[in-house]
Amino acid sequence: MGNSTSKKDNVIHADIADGNEPIPIKVINNYNEKQPFPFQYGTEYRLSEKVKSLTYQPTESDGCNCVAECTSELCRCESSSTATFDTINRRMQTFIDSYTCGDHQYIECGQHCGCMAKCKRRLTRDTIMKNIEVRYKPDVGFTVIACQHIAAGMPIMNYIGNVVIQEELEKNLNAIWGTDYTFNFHNEGNHKFHCDAAEYGNISRFMSHSCDPNAYILKAFPSTPFDKSKIVIPKLVVIALRSIIPGNEITITYGASYFRDRDIPCLCYTFVCAIPPGIFNIATPHC
Ligand SMILES: [Zn+2]
Ligand SMILES: [Zn+2]
Ligand SMILES: [Zn+2]
Ligand SMILES: [Zn+2]
């Protein structure tokens, strides 16, 4: 069956994606009665009107002129990318880690390209790309678990949410959820763009932090316009940093400021943990 659910698991949602993904995404909680906060499931970014007005949608003059495949240096999208995707094995070829991922950009082909986005360079999908589930873990909460082997470099899913600018976020900030599902992913032209998955998003919103994460988020831009003053919003792709085996939690780094700003310790318990709890004996409430 290819997933890690055992007969004893207490499945609290048969499909939290409500049929929006190619396979149902289970939520399991074997510890207590807790449920994930309700949210609206979606598989695509939702741009605020403000973000739409500030950003540029690439046209044919921005894309590559390739006819069918985009594999050579002649492809403008390929040659302007700072990271290479192995289109045969479907893995990032360039080694990127969670601390350098912000320095890279992948230029992804789109409908505006000569290949009409049908080439194999396409990294992102509008659906989850791997078999995963959500499980409750004591101390951590609901977290994303792999149900299949995922090789290092393979894309797993897009990070989805409402895309807003800083000013909108400050206005809408939900007191209950705070900024736990929100991150600033792009700054351009005096604007700070945030992806806010508190009320709308996909499974990526459940990804937990680790100071030694096994995944990172890569920016996938549409072909960059010649006019650099135009703002283009990248898609955010969660990519395996190491090989992930079934049962592994899929983790990213939230950055140390997440914990410092909240004055809370990190509970990742890895050797390299930047902000560990003072005493490693926090009682775990098993029920
Ligand atoms: Zn091309
Ligand atoms: Zn292209
Ligand atoms: Zn292409
Ligand atoms: Zn840590």
Automatic annotation (TrEMBL):
<keyword id="KW-0949">S-adenosyl-L-methionine</keyword>
<keyword id="KW-0808">Transferase</keyword>
<keyword id="KW-0158">Chromosome</keyword>
<feature type="domain" description="SET">
    <location>
        <begin position="130"/>
        <end position="255"/>
    </location>
</feature>
<dbReference type="InterPro" id="IPR043550">
    <property type="entry name" value="EHMT1/EHMT2"/>
</dbReference>
<dbReference type="GO" id="GO:0042054">
    <property type="term" value="F:histone methyltransferase activity"/>
</dbReference>
<dbReference type="InterPro" id="IPR007728">
    <property type="entry name" value="Pre-SET_dom"/>
</dbReference>
<dbReference type="Pfam" id="PF00856">
    <property type="entry name" value="SET"/>
</dbReference>
<dbReference type="GO" id="GO:0016279">
    <property type="term" value="F:protein-lysine N-methyltransferase activity"/>
</dbReference>
<dbReference type="GO" id="GO:0032259">
    <property type="term" value="P:methylation"/>
</dbReference>
<dbReference type="GO" id="GO:0002039">
    <property type="term" value="F:p53 binding"/>
</dbReference>
<dbReference type="InterPro" id="IPR046341">
    <property type="entry name" value="SET_dom_sf"/>
</dbReference>
<keyword id="KW-0489">Methyltransferase</keyword>
<dbReference type="GO" id="GO:0008270">
    <property type="term" value="F:zinc ion binding"/>
</dbReference>
<protein>
    <submittedName>
        <fullName>Pre-SET domain-containing protein</fullName>
    </submittedName>
</protein>
<dbReference type="InterPro" id="IPR001214">
    <property type="entry name" value="SET_dom"/>
</dbReference>
<dbReference type="GO" id="GO:0005694">
    <property type="term" value="C:chromosome"/>
</dbReference>
<dbReference type="GO" id="GO:0005634">
    <property type="term" value="C:nucleus"/>
</dbReference>
